[in-house]
Specification:
Elements: H1 3-15, H2 23-38, H3 43-50, H4 57-62, H5 69-91, H6 96-116, H7 119-130, H8 135-147, H9 150-162, H10 165-172
Helix pairs in contact: 1-2, 1-5, 2-3, 6-9, 7-8
Amino acid sequence: MAQKEIKLLQQQIDKLYTDDFELEPWKKYTVVLLERIFGAETEKIRMIREIDFEFSSWSLRDASGNESYEESSKKQACEILQAAIDELKIFGLPDVSKKEQSEKALLTLLNCLLDELKGSQVKQLKVIFSSGDSSEEKKRKVKEILQSLGETGAYEVLTNMLFLPEAQHILIK
């Protein structure tokens, strides 16, 4: 079970209600914890970053009658962290390391290809992938760019990919 992580998140909830509470340092510390526990792409981080005590016309309108906007924001922060604690209790720690390793390996492989392409070809790829063309049309256009590398360029890309430590590790297993 994720007892240490739950304890740290509970401490952050407790800090919300101390006399010397300061929002910005609390948010930064909380974001660091959430990144470590759930990964950098978790929705919880976005929600924590959006919490604000600023009194704007929208915030005044949205704050409930007898409750100050600051208290309302603290309750929101508490609920986000309580949801994170509940998630840890029910599902345990997420395996973010595997996801991050997969993303890094994919990025490394992609860089092998991009290293062999000219800048104009990389720009063409960006245009192709952001276009509204069908998948088949995108594949056809990408194939044209790859064919322009020639046989030697294609062999160079594949050789570099196979010589990556990540690829060799998979192959040797």
